[in-house]
Amino acid sequence: MLNEQNILFAEIFLARFYAENKDLEWYPAGYVQAWIKQAAQGVTVRRAEIRGARKRLGIESKNFDGEYRWSWRAGAVPEDVWAEKSAGVIRGEEPGDA
């Protein structure tokens, strides 16, 4: 069973990653996942929860010569998603609250 709170954290970290990393259009999935796990110190975010967050945010996954890479293709700006979701956590909103 996936932890909704951890999926929310993964969404925040994914948005932060893409807000801070704009050099490439496509980033290696393993690199992004490792970055999230390092950034989420103290929170155990599983790969399945990162995958769920990626899908909710509309981050595209594509195979390039045997290596999966991810690209922020969503219409929303990563900085805005990061700010909005972080503010919700600070306000104490639960995942799924409007």
Name some characteristics of this structure.
3-stranded antiparallel beta sheet; 98 residues; globular; alpha+beta; 53% helix
Describe this structure in words.
This protein is α+β, with helices and mostly antiparallel strands. About 55% of the residues lie in helices and about 15% in strands. The chain has a three-stranded antiparallel sheet with strand order 1-3-2. A hairpin with a 2-residue loop joins strand 2 and strand 3. The longest helix is centred in the N-terminal third of the chain and has 17 residues. The radius of gyration is 13 Å and the shape is globular. The chain starts with a helix and ends in an 8-residue tail after the last helix. The mean pLDDT is about 90.
The overall average pLDDT, rounded, is 88
Q: What gap, in angstroms, lies between the N and C termini?
A: 23 Å
What class do helices, strands and sheet pairing give? Answer: alpha+beta
**Largest β sheet strand count, sense and barrel closure:** 3 strands, antiparallel
The largest beta-sheet arranges its strands as 1-3-2
Beta-strand residue percentage = 5-15%
Round the Cα radius of gyration to an integer and report it.
13 Å
Spans with pLDDT under 50 lasting ≥5 residues?
none
* Number of E-type strands: 3
* Overall geometric form: globular
Question: What secondary-structure arrangement, pairings included, does this model have?
Answer:
Layout lengths: L3 H17 L6 E2 H11 L7 H11 L1 E6 L2 E6 L5 H13 L8
Antiparallel strand pairs: 1-3, 2-3
At a glance:
By secondary structure, the chain is of the alpha+beta class. It has helices spanning 4-20, 29-39, 47-57, 78-90, and strands at residues 27-28, 59-64, 67-72.
